[in-house]
Design brief:
The complex is a heterodimer of chains A (361) and B (471).
Chain A (H helix, E strand, L loop, with lengths): L7 H52 L5 H8 L3 H14 L9 H7 L2 H7 L5 H11 L5 H10 L5 H14 L5 H8 L4 H12 L6 H9 L7 H13 L6 H7 L5 H14 L5 H5 L7 H13 L6 H7 L5 H13 L2 H13 L3 H13 L9
Chain B lengths: L1 H39 L2 H9 L6 E7 L6 H9 L6 E8 L5 H9 L2 E2 L13 E6 L6 E6 L4 H11 L4 E5 L3 E3 L3 H11 L3 E10 L4 E3 L2 E4 L6 H23 L10 E5 H7 L9 H14 L8 E12 L5 H21 L10 H16 L1 H17 L5 H27 L8 H34 L16 H4 L1
Parallel strand pairs in B: 1-2, 1-6, 2-5, 8-12
Antiparallel strand pairs in B: 3-4, 4-5, 6-11, 7-12, 8-11, 9-10
Classes of the chains: A mainly alpha (361), B alpha/beta (471).
Chain lengths: 361, 471
């Protein structure tokens, strides 16, 4: 008598034997692969030890372009990845000195073909590499890559165009990326900010253009970058944006004005305290805090009774950031107000900043 | 009577087939996930995250209880993480050893007044300290609660919106946080990411940075190396794609603060707070009524190394606690089992966890008992039992080899041939003794949980100074 019956036993045995054979084949395959990866890593390590000092010698003018490229041609893929890594570590002003090496290693036609590949990683690598080839063909290819359906490729193309420093690409970048969510928006802004001050004139033109010429997302990112770069010339165009019909544009303008920190923005930003959108009111409170606008204390004090918790919280934080005068106001409101919400938020912020310990009081 | 025995025997065989097929499915799903992940990432992207001012800041939380021997190495390692903005919050959970003293000595701690906005109820805090030399280090000294209570205390005082929980005995790769945070930058609907945990025994760490990876020296450690690889490399990867990764290791977890607060933080009375919290978190994220549409990511190349017991006297109590903790977590959240409201978590994840994790030891011991009974009663032949055991062994070896195949393509592959062959031998010997020891310990733990109603955490594992601290 048997658990599975006599017919099943040979089947089970055959399955077990088949699995054992499969396991041994798999083990053999893994071992061969282990050996190959080991060899590859050893080669990369030796190659890197030889190539990196050579690139530095080239940068110091102690080695010629021909010598460096000849040595790198031994393994162009690995050499290119070392070169890109080094280029990222260098100051942006020093990167153009690596240009001859990139030109010697990157075959532009191959990279442009790779941009059409179905493989995401190939497209990403090609987009990254083309950024280091500062010529018209690569810029045109990168501008095309801005149309890619995958946002990661579009962002990578934007970064590569920023590495090339082509300011004429800024508007296409902003129009092509058009990424709706907040995180992508921030990454896009960062890609543009890689251009540094050279991006300012283009961005200013965009802000000053008539409403509707550029998408709201493009304007938002432009405003954000100008805020990140703390561009004082952008204050007036940004103040005009505070009246934009789109909530997200007003919000972004208020934030950028807060970051720039120009006192001329205080009154226009304070006017947003009556904005119908709570997110805009919240951002306005934060901006007032950053602008250190003491004369807006009454407005901030009123905002402590706002219908939105976030606005009340941001107003209380803004008052705290004004220093002793703001703290005194918070304490005054806490004692005198009949509004339970205002008292609660004052209490919460004072407690957070250790000015008040409610457990003791 | 004999018919009942046959039915039991056949049921166990069906259970074994179901387990093997599910495991194979998970291997395939896991491998596909890793393949997809590897195709997406580029080194430049991580360089960018490491330098970007826009990378979301992270509060790294380290709960510590009697960790004087290793805490300095761990904190040094965390302070060296290559990430643009992070703070390290160490919580001394009422240690009775020198934990707080060594921290004072090494980091010249000074008292700090700090209150946080979040207020999860915890045991009283004695003091909060900062270090003048390391502005992003905060040390909290509090009354002893449990690991969960220590985490909650740190959450209350944390500054940033992303929280990374790491065990005090862990060492993380310097780029680990970049890898963990990457999906949060790409996907706003992500709530949690977790990574791979591997044994740190055999690791060489210098000034907080991992300089060499090796394997544990003892067979027990080596066996756990294989077990961890199998558990993390494919099981969790595959399970996560089915919203069923119900055990995110507490050793490495990155979570949005708002998600942790809404779930209510880890449960201080849990035997294994990470498993209980993970199940509750799944309930929160995947409850269809809430329409949150949030996600969990498993990052196959974010590696955290943790000390594993190399003495059997430490190993057995640890496994006992894990088994009791699993049972407690599953039965505390029993409403999720087969509940369609939680989608695949309820219909697949929870039943899988109950049947193939929590109750697996019971079934396996029942199988051994039945085999002996059948032999004694003459209902089967020794040859048939051997063939069935051979099948179980082949399946086990095949699945584990698949794991090694996946590991070979990752940053966790063995760096020397000696280690590679040691690992291979461990794969072939795992099912010849160690596995059975694990099963019997788990069975005992199940008995203690249900019959003796044991709910304590047991004695903490005795730490030895890791290479990170000694070198």
């Amino acid at each position: 008598m048997e658990i599975l019956g006599p017919n099943f036993i040979p089947i089970v045995l055959n399955i077990a034997l088949a699995l054992s054979v499969l396991s041994l084949v798999l083990l053999l395959y893994i071992t061969v692969e282990h050996w190959m990866i080991d060899r590859r890593q050893q080669h990369n390590s030796t190659f890197g030890k030889a190539i990196i000092p050579l690139i530095w010698r080239f940068l110091r003018g102690e080695a010629t372009e021909e010598t460096a490229i000849k040595a790198m041609q031994e393994d162009p893929t690995e050499a290119l990845s070392l070169l890109i890594h080094l280029a990222h570590e260098l100051e942006s002003s020093s990167r153009p000195r690596l240009q001859p090496l990139f030109t010697g290693l990157i075959f532009i036609d191959e990279e442009i073909d790779a941009l059409k590949s179905n493989q995401l990683k190939r497209r990403l690598l090609a987009t990254e590499r083309l950024g280091f080839l500062n010529n018209e063909a690569s810029t045109a290819a990168l501008l095309d890559a801005l149309e890619d359906k995958i946002p990661a490729i579009r962002l990578c193309a934007a970064r590569s165009l920023a590495i090339q420093g082509k300011t004429e690409a800024i508007k296409p970048i902003l129009q092509a990326l058009d990424l709706p969510n907040e995180l992508d928006n921030r990454r896009e802004a960062e890609a543009i900010s890689d251009y540094g001050p050279s991006a300012v004139p283009t961005l200013l033109t965009m802000l000053e253009s008539p409403i509707g010429k550029y998408s709201a997302n493009a304007i938002i990112v432009a405003a954000r970058v100008l805020g990140m770069l703390r561009t004082s010339e952008a204050v007036q165009p940004l103040i005009r944006l505070l009246k934009n019909p789109q909530e997200s544009v007003r919000l972004c303008a208020a934030r950028a004005l807060g970051e720039i920190g120009d006192p001329a923005a205080i009154s226009p930003v304070a006017a947003l305290a009556n904005d119908p959108a709570w997110r805009v009111r919240k951002k306005a409170m934060k901006a007032i805090g950053k602008l250190h606008a003491d004369r807006q204390i009454p407005m901030l004090s009123n905002a402590l009774s706002d219908s939105s918790w976030w606005v009340r919280f941001s107003a209380a934080q803004a008052l705290h950031s004004l220093g002793q005068v703001g703290i005194t106001e918070l304490q005054k409101v806490m004692k005198n107000t009949s509004d339970e919400h205002a008292r609660e938020i004052c209490c919460e912020v004072l407690e957070e900043h250790m000015i008040l310990d409610t457990k003791k009081n | 009577m004999i018919t009942i025995l046959y039915i039991c025997g056949f049921s166990i065989f069906v259970y074994f087939i179901a387990l093997s097929m599910t495991s194979l499915l998970l291997v395939i799903l896991g491998a596909l996930q890793i393949h997809k992940y590897n195709k997406e990432i580029t080194i430049a992207e991580f360089d960018h995250i490491a330098q970007s001012e826009l990378s979301t800041p992270v509060s790294v939380i380290v709960p510590a209880f009697n960790e004087a021997a290793i805490i300095i190495g761990t904190v040094e390692n965390l302070l060296k993480l290559n990430y643009p903005c992070h703070e390290v919050i160490v919580v001394d959970d009422g240690s009775t050893d020198e934990t707080i003293c060594v921290l004072h000595q090494r980091f010249k701690l000074q008292p700090l007044e700090r209150h946080g906005a979040t207020q999860i109820e915890t045991r009283p805090i004695h003091a909060v300290y900062e270090s003048p030399d390391y502005p992003n280090l905060v040390v909290i000294s509090k009354e002893n609660g449990q690991r969960a209570d220590a985490i909650n205390a740190a959450v209350n005082l944390s500054r940033y919106s992303l929280l990374c929980v790491i065990d005090a005995d862990c060492v993380i790769e310097t780029d680990g946080l970049q890898h963990m945070a990457r999906p949060f930058l790409l996907n706003p609907s992500l709530a949690v990411s977790s990574g791979v945990v591997r044994p740190s025994n055999g690791l060489v760490v210098k000034n907080g940075t991992i300089v060499a990876r090796g394997l544990p020296k003892s067979w027990l450690g080596l066996n756990q190396e294989v077990e961890y690889a199998r558990s993390f490399q494919w099981a969790r990867n595959g399970l996560n794609s089915l919203h069923s990764m119900l055990c995110i290791s507490g050793a490495l977890l990155l979570i949005k603060k708002e998600a942790l607060e809404e779930v209510g933080g880890p449960w201080p009375k849990a035997i294994t707070d990470d498993i209980e919290f993970t199940i509750r978190l799944h309930g929160y994220l995947f409850d269809r009524r809430n329409k949150r549409n949030l996600k969990i990511a498993f990052i196959p190349d974010a590696v955290c190394y943790t000390e594993v017991p190399e003495k059997i006297s430490q190993y057995l109590p640890q496994r006992n606690r894990w088994q009791r903790g699993t049972l407690q977590a599953v039965f505390r959240n029993w409403r999720m089992i087969f509940n369609p409201r939680y989608g695949t978590t309820g219909l697949f994840g929870m039943p899988y966890f109950l049947l193939f994790e929590a109750l697996a030891p019971l079934v396996e011991v029942a199988a051994y008992t039945l085999a002996v009974t059948f032999l004694v009663l003459g209902l089967t032949t020794f040859k048939e039992i051997l063939i069935l055991m051979f099948l179980a062994y082949s399946v086990n070896v095949f699945l584990t080899l698949m794991t090694i195949y996946i590991t070979e393509k990752s940053n966790q592959r063995s760096t020397s041939w000696k280690d590679y062959w040691k690992e291979v031998i461990a794969i072939f010997t795992d099912a010849l003794g160690w596995h059975q020891i694990r099963v019997f310990v788990s069975l005992l733990a199940t008995f203690e949980y249900f019959i003796l109603r044991r709910r304590d955490l047991g004695a903490p594992m005795e730490r030895k100074p890791t290479p990170s601290a000694s070198i």
